[in-house]
Design brief:
heterodimer; A: 164 residues; OB fold (Dihydrolipoamide Acetyltransferase, E2P); 7 strands; 27% helix; B: 246 residues; mainly alpha
Chain lengths: 164, 246
């Protein structure tokens, strides 16, 4: 074996080992790397009741009640729903049907008391006229993947990970 | 491949590419910037803020592509002692760092109005910040040794170790839930309309050709400074020899 091929195998083995090690570490820390929990995970008891954490999901249609700076709404992943209360200014994108991430704690009544609400943006980008026309014709609703034929000849993304 | 280990051969090709890359980059910027910033449509949700995307996404693509190139060059240097591959990696690092910084800054300016915050520690943002530090670490390490060859070797190893982070950046939005949205564009799929894809592709092309053009300039400068260094060293050797002879 020449020195060059020995170095080649050394580098390849090193990268392989490094990759495997990183994969193991990332899998082990899986639970700590996720940015937020879904309402289903909370219903399954994966979150300690006294723990501070972030909840992520869609703002349920018709659930938003505003009283001055106090807002209450429900976050849903279409399987489970958690009630959230928040006092403060909401981001511009906050509205019913929008994906959001809220940070806070669940109180004894089972309500999530948030002290920060962030809007989550989806991966759909299009002009307002196109969005309006699509909604009007019933080809598309917010939160869905875009229909075929408007993405410049490239196939649209087939799955919209709504609760990711 | 070994033909290109010779700097003269390598630079002959690099110099031939330079005017094309520089010209194409200028043309793409001249067409792309007005479309991206003025004539392309505003987004139905983000309004005019969507225009930040035309800087942010090409910068992010460059951050990843440049790093893959650096890792490949470093591997070629470590395995085959290919000096030009190492020089390409070294000359690319500051540009990679600048593109990463641009990506982070644009992203933060977009995040404040859209998400409601400049920064969160989610997997995508954190891994991108780590990438920025890897670039800075590479630059610092390459310069940290008295003997430049030792510095080159240490930095090349760091470049190879750092390459694990690049796929993590790319797939972080798919592997874990993050505040950052998943990719709007892949090789075969898009969730953007054609009139937004056009400025995005133009800007990506402009950034890519800009990188190639500046890379050639940096390689020229690196080779010149190596020549000056060698000339100085031989001058010192000559004067020492004459001093010893007297």
């Amino acid at each position: 074996m020449t020195r060059k091929s020995r170095r080649l195998y050394f580098v390849l083995l090193g990268l392989l080992g490094l990759g495997a090690g990183t994969a193991l570490v990332l899998t082990a820390f899986q639970d700590n790397i996720v940015f937020f929990r879904s309402p289903t995970e909370i219903a399954e008891g994966k979150v300690q009741p006294t723990q501070r954490f972030r909840i992520g999901g869609l703002v349920e249609e018709g659930s938003v009640v505003k009283q001055g700076e106090n807002v209450s709404f429900a976050v849903t992943d279409m399987k489970h729903t958690v009630k959230v209360t928040y006092t403060g200014i909401l981001p511009d994108l906050f509205r019913e049907g929008q994906g959001i991430v809220a940070e806070g704690q669940i109180n004894t009544a089972g309500v999530f008391v948030a002290n920060e609400v962030l809007a989550k943006h989806d991966e759909n980008y299009m002009p307002r006229e196109v969005a309006d026309a699509l909604k009007k014709s019933g080809h598309w609703q917010e939160g869905e993947p875009l229909p075929k034929g408007i993405t410049g000849g490239i196939a649209p993304v087939s799955t919209a990970p709504a609760d990711q | 491949m070994h033909k290109f280990a010779n700097p003269t051969q390598f630079m002959r090709i690099a110099n031939a590419i330079y005017p094309w890359a520089a010209g194409l980059s200028m043309i793409l910027f001249l067409i792309g910037v007005p479309i991206a910033l003025v004539s392309s449509p505003a987004d139905y949700q983000q309004g005019e803020t969507v225009r930040i995307l035309y800087l942010h996404v090409p910068a992010a693509v460059m951050m990843q592509m440049i790093y893959y190139g650096m890792a490949a060059g470093s591997a070629a240097y470590l395995i085959w002692r290919h000096p030009m591959a190492n020089l390409v990696a070294k000359a690319s690092a500051p540009m990679g760092a600048i593109f990463t910084a641009l990506c982070l800054i644009c992203g933060m300016l977009w995040g404040q109005p859209m998400w409601g915050t400049f920064w969160v520690w989610d997997a995508r943002l954190t891994s991108t910040l780590i990438q920025f530090f890897i670039y800075l670490g590479y630059i610092a390490l390459a310069d940290a040794f008295e003997d430049p060859e030792r510095g080159d070797r240490a930095a090349a190893i760091l470049a190879l170790v750092g390459v694990v982070n690049v796929p993590i950046i790319k797939f972080s939005v798919n592997w874990w839930n993050t505040l950052h949205q998943p990719a709007s564009l892949s090789l075969t799929k898009s969730s953007m309309t054609g009139d937004m894809l056009l400025p995005l592709f133009l800007m990506m092309g402009a950034f890519g050709t800009f990188y190639i053009a500046v890379l050639v300039l940096r390689l020229r400068a690196e080779l010149l400074s190596a020549k000056i260094r060698n000339a100085r060293l031989s001058q010192v050797a000559v004067s020492e020899a004459t001093a010893a002879a007297e």
